[in-house]
Biotin/methionine sulfoxide reductase
Amino acid sequence: MTEQIRTVPTTTHWGTYLARTNGSRLLALDPHPDDPDPTRIGESVADASSGVGRLRTPLVRRGWLEDGPGPADRPGSRRRGDDEYVAVDWDTAASLVADEITRVRAQHGNRAIYGGSYGWGSAGRFHHPQSQVHRFLNLAGGYTRSVDTYSSAAITVILRRVAGGWQTAMDSTPTFEEIAEHGSLVVAFGGLALRNTQVNDGGLGAHLSPGAQRTAARAGVDFVSVSPLRTDAAEFLNATWLPARPGTDVAIMLGLAHEIVAAGRHDQDFLARCTTGWDVFEDYLMGRSDGVAKTAGWAAAISGIDADTLRTLAVRIATERTVISTSYSVQRADHGEQAPWMALTLAALSGSMGRPGGGFGCGLGALHRNGMRLNRVPAASFPQGVNGVADFIPVARISDLLTRPGREFDYDGGRYTYPDIRLVYWVGGNPFHHHQDLNRLAAAWQRPDTVIVHEHFANALARHADIVLPAATFAERTDFAAGREDPFLMAMVAASPPPGDVLTDYEIFARIAEKLGLEEKFTENRTAAEWVDELYERTRKRAATLDVQLPEWAELVERGRVRLPDLDRPEKPYAALRANPEAHPVATPSGRLEIYSTTIAGFGYADCPPHPTWLEPSEWLGSPLAQRFPLALVSGQPERRLHSQFDNGAYSRAGKINGREPVLINPADAAVRGIADGCVVRLFNNRGACLAGAVLSADIRPGVVRLSTGAWYDPLTPGGLDVHGNPNVLTPDHGTSALAQGPSAHTALVQVELWSGPVPDITVFGPMPGPPDRSAQPSSGGPE
Ligand SMILES: Nc1nc2c(c(=O)[nH]1)N[C@H]1C(S)=C(S)[C@@H](COP(=O)(O)OP(=O)(O)OC[C@H]3O[C@@H](n4cnc5c(=O)[nH]c(N)nc54)[C@H](O)[C@@H]3O)O[C@H]1N2
Ligand SMILES: Nc1nc2c(c(=O)[nH]1)N[C@H]1C(S)=C(S)[C@@H](COP(=O)(O)OP(=O)(O)OC[C@H]3O[C@@H](n4cnc5c(=O)[nH]c(N)nc54)[C@H](O)[C@@H]3O)O[C@H]1N2
Ligand SMILES: [Mo]
């Protein structure tokens, strides 16, 4: 019998594909033939989806079944992360979830349910997991939510206060094509790593960003990458590499600004007309207010970049059409608000702000869309309804939330209280990937009464849950997708049915809603297919109002994706501001870019002063702690996957060293530790330890190691050595400041040593821990 192989279109956050299928199983994802720079990330999907780690049936944690809901750190309880799972049927699982929601609502109110459920999930307008879970929980009376993102919390909140908002800054950021045409110099703090442009939230139709970067390079634009890692700028950019100490970007920018101002080269006209508070900042910059002039020499001592290099660069910034860009990494750090604010200030004084091909680069190159023409595909989404609970947390304060009920916290000028969380519901994100200080999270995670998770795989999140509901992947459902600010609309056609008893998130919620008497409200009597039709028709109607004709569904499926015409865009907000600040103010109290913010001054936060300020990070290469932990850890985005997704697949696993996540280490740092290329090493500090596979490379600055995020957390014992290489066992869990309370992942010191013990197996790619399989046990041989 010959297998009938066919292809159907689908899309992911890392590109658009033709899915090859035999009807019962996904065989491969082939990049869409029109993608000029496809990524290989999709090569992990097919084998992982049908592998041993795939969840195929609902599971309940034995301790939770036996003891009932309650904290897992009660005396005598089995802890979450250290227990077995029992298979149940869907009816039982749905009843357990519905009964528990009912109990928690009745006893503690809806604010005791944490449903923030942060994470990227997978593409699709209808099946988008967060839309599903939020609609469901809203119908059930609401939930404590989260605000902002792990990606860009600090930059979002600071720009909202001082620069008219993140979107305004994004809209003002020059594209690579504009830079090619008008620009001369790009100074990128944290670089603009090509590997990060593989990805766009919601999907992307074609990888056009590498080509756009090449255009800028060919046009003769010079790139300067300030970063501990050479490969944070594509080779073809021929970038000048300034291998700065991590966490010192604000000092470098201040040094550059000082040189420009001392030479009288700053754009006094723009500063006077279009900004406020320059005088206060200038007193700080020149040392008049604190006695410390922020000279190039001062910056050199902090950053390790020599003063003459900074002086030469300062002249270029002041005299050429320049973009000052910060990646998101520099704000995912202690005092992360300061670097983007200072970059905005440096751009404001440079002479290039609001001019074509110059100014502030808001995360240029951090994702596919950054530096591309921003489009707004008017795609409809699955309506989420209204949340009946007002409580929220800044997204990265999850461990604080679980351990500090009733305690107050600061956020962006307000004071709020952490609710007492009894139920955690997570769908489409993985806190055991994304959160800092995983050992602290694992302890905090014992506190709630119940944790419910929908997952594809037996990953660390599933292994720390009480009720685990197996969910279909993007390739097992039909939908359509549009990437954020991406010009394409994509069809997603199920390549195969899901395996085993697996259901889509929608079907799971519909079953639970039925038990709660909410089914009709949740489904509105539509099947998933009918919802997709409905949302696609809404999208077509919206597009028609913009004079864009979208094809019928069948034609979209036939073509796989369509490119929408570029919509007319208003003038860039900062260009309009420069032209006429009275007519085109930005959304700040003054209508200007605020280099000094009276609002922030009013908050009185010691860790977020009212103008850009160099504040020593809580740990960095210049701090006393570096005596014990002499290496700075940077944990950027992985080349071979999206975050932790499909780390169990072929392409991601092919990148491992001895089964461990690779850690980049400078040959000089390796030599003094007796570490050779390919060795297994142990990274450790006061928060935790993990194994990793050493890759010796001169591309990393001495004194810095890089371990990508996303290796599935695999502790040998609860809270013990992570044998796989997840950097978040090492990173600190505190807010960037009281202002944004963003994650501080890039602020970490570690030590590294050769691992000479036996190298433990990776278990997290295997099945969930179950009760001992008696059929597989040899008989005891005793009397029957
Ligand atoms: N140390 C350190 N930590 C970091 C960062 C860093 O730079 N350093 N970066 C941070 C950043 S920027 C981000 S955005 C976060 C990312 O953090 P996350 O977005 O939480 O990471 P993902 O691995 O994408 O998690 C998605 C999870 O959802 C599951 N999933 C996917 N699709 C579906 C679906 O349709 N239904 C269901 N039920 N589940 C689904 C996947 O299996 C996976 O477990 O990490 C942050 N963490
Ligand atoms: N392949 C792939 N691409 C992705 C993602 C993915 O998971 N995989 N995730 C996407 C997401 S969700 C996001 S938010 C973006 C994130 O985009 P970013 O946050 O910009 O990306 P990172 O990789 O965390 O960091 C970029 C580089 O910053 C450097 N760096 C770290 N600390 C410092 C510092 O203190 N100073 C300076 N100057 N440099 C520093 C590191 O060398 C690192 O390689 O990436 C997106 N792109
Ligand atoms: Mo992100």
